[in-house]
Amino acid sequence: MDRYADYRRLDVTWVSDGVLKVTIDNPGRANALDAVGHTEITRIWRDAEADERVRAVLVTGAGRMFSAGGDVEWVRSFTDDPQARIDGLREARELVTNLVEFTKPVVSSVRGAAVGAGLVVALLADVSVVARNARLIDGHTRLGVAAGDHAPLVWPLLCGLAKAKYYLLTCDPLDGAEAERIGLVSLAVDDVNVLDRATDIAVRLAEGAPTALRWTKQALNSWLRAAMPHFDAALALEFLGFAGPEAQEGIAALGEKRAPMF
Asked: 205 and which of 32, 105, 107, 242 could share a cystine (Cβ 3.0–4.6 Å)?
């Protein structure tokens, strides 16, 4: 039985021998990740780790969008249901730790917007290839919660503390060109070339010396493992915030497509 056959929000195919292509695919919802999609984007790394055929992973979004992040209704459940908050915190932690501990190379191909959990995957990839006109947005504080999940873990390492503070506090979007300039992503290319460039890199990595590549990744990811206490603190503060009035207003404003009134 194909271990990927039961995925509903991810389209899992093979680019070539050794390269698994994971496409976030939620038609009509800008590839938003609802409860099902978030569980699947968390689980896929365990399945791909156990699959001896996989030597590299290419992750992208269907159509012209990478992912709009967490589905609003799913996120709203965190404000109403303590068990949903507990489950959400656990799974958000697993998404990040599964990516950090995944031993094989990951290449992200980003067009359109990458937000929320989609941004987690885009930036925790080992090589991130984005369109120059892509929009990268960490919107936590606009939502009324602390910038948790991946941001305090990886942004200061990638682009420095000053830039990390600016974008995480203001929620200003970055285009791909600026993200490359400040070091947040690996490469920014023309929109039409993103998938081809990312695919070429994934194939090249899959053809490389697997143990050497995986051990190099393991060594480099020691920086992320050392920063895990920052991540755990930020994630706890984020989900604590979901129990308060600021998150209720932020989520309501998002659903009503208006500016929040904090």
From this structure: 105
* Cα separation, 116 vs 181, whole angstroms: 21
Closest to 145 in 3D by CA, of 34, 68, 253: 253
Distance CA 254, CA 93 (A): 24
Secondary structure (3-state) at 121: helix
- How many angstroms separate the CA atoms of 198 and 178, rounded? 19
The two tokens of residue 143 are 């939502």
Distance (Å, whole) CA 234 – CA 246: 17
- In contact, 96 and 144? CB cutoff 8 Å: no
**Tokens linked to 176:** 């791909």
Q: Cα-flanking dihedrals φ and ψ of residue 16, to 5°?
A: -160, 180
Pairing of strands 19-24, 174-175: unpaired
25 and 10 in contact (C-beta within 8 Å)? Answer: yes
Please tell me the distance from the alpha carbon of residue 207 to that of residue 63, in angstroms, as a whole number: 27
CB contact set of 18 (below 8 Å; sequence gap of 6+): 53, 54, 55, 56, 203, 206, 207
Residues 103-150 pLDDT 10s? 999 999 999 999 999 999 999 999 999 999 999 999 999 999 999 889
- What letter would DSSP give residue 64? T
CA dihedral 78, 81, 84, 89 (to 10 degrees): 50
Alpha helices by DSSP H, listed for the chain, are 35-50, 72-80, 82-101, 116-124, 140-143, 151-159, 161-170, 176-181, 194-206, 210-220, 222-226, 228-241, 245-256
pTM: 0.96
